[in-house]
Inverse folding.
């Protein structure tokens, strides 16, 4: 009778005969064009990450014009170029007047996009600095972001401009993070002289 060899024993025997390390092919240094394309990409990417989409777009276009043969870098550059162009289109579509910016801020706030909402309210206040409803929206957004002190400042300004907003503030869920702060109670529940 021939002893049966288990399957795991066979696999172990085969593995033992294989070389244990696989030598990786040595990396070749980048060509002059590849190195230049990478440097151009890094410069364009830096502009992109700093939000300077117009400059990034121009740099990515120049990179593609000059180094389109460097396929890996060119593919990434095309992706970032498309994103930069989309961002530029979006910036051009942003509302310009205070009421439209306020409306957009409310939409972003309701969507949970608090940073975008804050930006819209801040832009609106630059155009109409005495608008109580915009200060109130900014207070709600800052409260949602957890910026209690800034939220209280915005709420204070809103209530100074329009005291009847106190009633709304007493029940507004966007201001929940402020409710435990004694300054909130002073602002909202105690009538001012």
């Amino acid at each position: 009778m021939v002893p049966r060899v288990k399957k795991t024993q066979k696999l172990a025997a085969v593995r033992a005969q294989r070389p244990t390390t696989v030598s990786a092919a040595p990396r070749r240094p980048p060509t002059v064009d590849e190195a230049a394309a990478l440097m151009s990409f890094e410069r364009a990417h830096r502009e992109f990450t700093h939000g300077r989409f117009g400059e990034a777009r121009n740099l990515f276009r120049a990179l593609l014009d000059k180094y389109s043969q460097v396929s890996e870098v060119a593919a990434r550059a095309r992706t970032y170029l498309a994103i930069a162009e989309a961002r530029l289109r979006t910036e051009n579509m942003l509302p310009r007047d205070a009421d439209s910016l306020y409306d957009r801020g409310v939409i972003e706030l309701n969507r949970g996009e608090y940073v975008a909402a804050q930006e819209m309210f801040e832009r609106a206040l630059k155009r109409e600095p005495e608008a109580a409803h915009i200060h109130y929206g900014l207070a709600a957004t800052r409260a949602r972001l957890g910026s209690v002190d800034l939220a209280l400042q915005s709420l204070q300004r809103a209530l100074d401009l329009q005291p009847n907003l106190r009633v709304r503030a007493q029940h507004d869920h966007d201001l929940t993070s402020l409710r435990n702060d004694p300054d909130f109670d002073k602002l909202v529940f105690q009538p001012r002289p």
In short: The chain has two domains: 33-93, 98-189. The chain has a mean pLDDT of 87. Residues 33-93 form one domain.
